């Protein structure tokens, strides 16, 4: 077993100005979720570990944004940020998902700046791991905003790694929604392996992410999609992960592992229909940490993502993510920190009492699968679509 508690220096990207990525009152992607996460992680002492440094990066400049986004789109976002009445529905700006707001360009560029800086320090070897919980805006496309995402920070972090010389980057997305933007931006690039485990697009936005989506010409097998049935719980989600992610990462042998950790797969999330617990999510963080050491020399860039139970789930899940990355994991049976509980109560809300939901997060490892089982059948379809292209047996 790899000793992930001794994995080297870690950089946590944080600037209080990141809460300025704010679509306004009543929008599901409320910035309080990242504020509450950082408060909880600080009270647990996660960010005070001797190997951890907290840094703020400058907003991404136009040259960086143009690595993946079109100039006309950047101009439209800039106009919307200067005058929110300047909606551009063709480019996804001013919709219910992506309302325009003052400062939109600068706030979005700041999120990107954190993920790009995280990529740079991981690639240089300055740190082993870097985390941007405010990032993971994986739906944004080259020319459009989508699904609460203006610029695709996590894809731009990958693009920066490629620009710096990386030739194999693996991206694993565990958000409940398909990582469609990141997949699309690297569809034809054999240097990037994108793996997304999500609720099936038959039931959930963005309606994509099926096993037959395997990548463009010359990059076949580089896009991997596990479309999970509704009500998938810890045991079954972890079984699907076990069947797909480790063998593909071992075969691809990435130089860097990039991960997106949307926690909207939780059973209490109001926008989706999977049934994971914080314990199952925490187990996935641990497994991806281990895999980063096993397949990528420990080089790991992690981001946040979706998550809309703003108090009950997101702060606990991402505090576990930060603690895992920083090498100071928190016992799930631990009570949530008292100062944090008091702060949540001051907001008129009820804090969750403990860092666990009481799940063992146990699962039966993949054993070949049962084609008559809905979960196993979707895993078998994914393996059949891509495994042979990596020299693996489906």
UniProtKB/TrEMBL annotation:
Keyword check for Ribonucleoprotein: no
Gene3D superfamilies, per database record: Histone deacetylase domain
Record keyword Metal-binding present: no
UniProt xrefs under Pfam families: Hist_deacetyl (PF00850)
Organism superkingdom: Bacteria
InterPro entries: AcuC, HDACs, His_deacetylse_dom, His_deacetylse_dom_sf, Ureohydrolase_dom_sf
Keyword field: Acetoin catabolism
Pathway, per record: Ketone degradation; acetoin degradation
Histone deacetylase domain boundaries: 27-323
Stated family: Belongs to the histone deacetylase family.
Name the record gives this protein: Acetoin utilization protein AcuC
Origin species: Sporichthya brevicatena
């Amino acid at each position: 077993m790899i000793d992930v508690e001794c994995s080297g220096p870690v950089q946590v990207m944080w600037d209080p100005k990141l809460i300025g990525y704010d679509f306004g009152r009543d929008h599901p992607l409320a910035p309080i979720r990242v504020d509450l996460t950082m408060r909880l992680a600080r009270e647990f002492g996660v960010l005070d570990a001797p190997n951890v440094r907290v840094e703020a990066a400058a907003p991404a400049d136009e040259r960086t944004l143009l690595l993946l986004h079109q100039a006309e789109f950047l101009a439209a976002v800039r106009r919307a940020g200067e005058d929110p009445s300047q909606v551009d529905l063709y480019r996804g700006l001013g919709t219910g998902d992506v309302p325009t707001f003052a400062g939109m360009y600068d706030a979005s560029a700041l999120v990107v700046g954190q993920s790009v800086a995280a990529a740079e320090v991981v690639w240089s070897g300055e740190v082993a791991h870097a985390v941007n919980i405010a990032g993971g805006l994986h739906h944004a496309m080259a020319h459009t905003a989508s699904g609460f995402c203006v610029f695709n920070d996590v894809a731009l972090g990958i693009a920066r790694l490629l620009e710096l010389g990386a030739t194999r980057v693996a991206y694993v997305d565990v958000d409940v929604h398909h990582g469609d933007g990141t997949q699309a931006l690297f569809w034809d690039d054999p240097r990037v392996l994108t793996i997304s485990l999500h609720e099936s697009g038959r039931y959930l936005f963005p309606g994509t992410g099926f096993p037959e989506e395997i990548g463009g010409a010359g990059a076949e097998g580089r896009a991997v999609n596990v479309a999970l049935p509704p009500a998938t719980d810890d045991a079954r989600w972890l079984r699907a992960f076990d069947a797909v992610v480790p063998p593909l990462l071992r075969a691809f042998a990435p130089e860097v592992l990039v991960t997106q950790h949307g926690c909207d797969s939780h059973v209490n999330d109001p926008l989706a229909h999977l049934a994971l617990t914080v314990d199952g999510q925490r187990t996935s963080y641990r497994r991806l940490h281990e895999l980063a050491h096993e397949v990528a020399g420990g080089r790991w860039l992690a981001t946040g993502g979706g998550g809309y139970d703003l108090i009950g789930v997101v702060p606990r899940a991402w505090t576990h993510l930060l603690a895992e990355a920083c090498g100071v994991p928190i016992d799930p049976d631990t009570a949530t920190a008292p100062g944090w509980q008091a702060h949540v109560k001051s907001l008129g809300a009820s804090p969750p009492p403990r860092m666990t939901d009481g799940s063992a997060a146990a699962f039966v490892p993949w054993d070949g699968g049962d084609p008559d089982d809905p979960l196993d059948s979707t895993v078998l379809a994914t393996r059949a679509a891509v495994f042979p292209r990596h020299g693996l047996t489906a």
